[in-house]
């Protein structure tokens, strides 16, 4: 018999997780605020708990996947997690994860925070590339390694419970910048180039440019922001003016681009014309 688990939260992500564990033969107890979502899983073998406290009591391994830190707090409020292994897959901040870890620790539970790097259709799908960052109790992670690996790959980030959230949010932040750039690019081209044709070009270009991050890492590691710079800041700032004039010609607002361009100009004005854009990172640090 596979290890049992309880899952609180059956939204798009929680529901996908539940189906993956059920399909793999794990006994799963579920709870959801809107009961209909739990009932729907009963057909697939899930046991439905009437309250969060009942769900927490039902299994040694308790997993929550709720909207945000506040809703997870509300749900866990009336439950007794002592002696349990609690895993929080709700997206939150590093400090929120650390606070949840303290909450669990004070109540005699082991704790692991998780950051899901996937959309629901990737969950339980072999070869989808889905994985979850985990941080907190290494012992919990190791004791439940097989169960945790069912819905997605697993990456243990470290004992600091905030690390998974930090990595999760950092990757989402990089994605947000990418979404912004792609939105601007489609706004420029939509009247002149077939969207699908342009998408092929965008995907190829972003893939080719992605290793930019390795150059940044080398600059941060060595402290020399001019190493292997092929596109200097002075040239790029000049190029920005062309990007902005093109936006104007195409009647597209430059508002997604200008914040980054302003930082590039400030760095250049500080006398760093031999650098690329790594110096922008220094300007972002809030004192
Ligand atoms: P949904 O909006 O689909 O589901 C939200 C869940 O939280 C539902 O079960 C909902 O219950 C419950 N909920 C919300 N507020 C409360 C509350 N006050 N009390 C009790 N339950 C509450 O979100 P997802 O399932 O997509 O997301 C869940 C978590 O997974 C989020 O933290 C999200 O960031 C993360 N995640 C989601 C991804 C995605 O692509 N969907 C990707 C990676 C992470 P009810 O059914 O009653 O409304």
* CA-based shape: elongated
Number of helical elements: 13
Which molecules are bound in this entry?
NADPH dihydro-nicotinamide-adenine-dinucleotide phosphate
At CATH level 3, the topology of the largest domain is: Rossmann fold
The CATH superfamily of the largest domain turns out to be: NAD(P)-binding Rossmann-like Domain
Query: What ranges have pLDDT less than 50 throughout 5 or more consecutive residues?
Result: none
Proportion of helical residues = 40-55%
Q: What is the radius of gyration computed over CA atoms, rounded to a whole number of angstroms?
A: 23 Å
For the largest beta-sheet, the strand count, sense and barrel status come to:
8 strands, mixed
CATH architecture group name of the largest domain: 3-Layer(aba) Sandwich
| Structural domains: how many | 2
Strand content: 5-15%
The end-to-end span amounts to 54 Å
Q: Which CATH first-tier class of the largest domain would you pick?
A: Alpha Beta
As laid out across the biggest beta sheet, the strand order is 3-2-1-4-5-6-7-8
Give the number of DSSP strands. 8
H/E order of the elements?
A: EHEHEHEHEHEEHHEHHHHHH
Average pLDDT number: 97
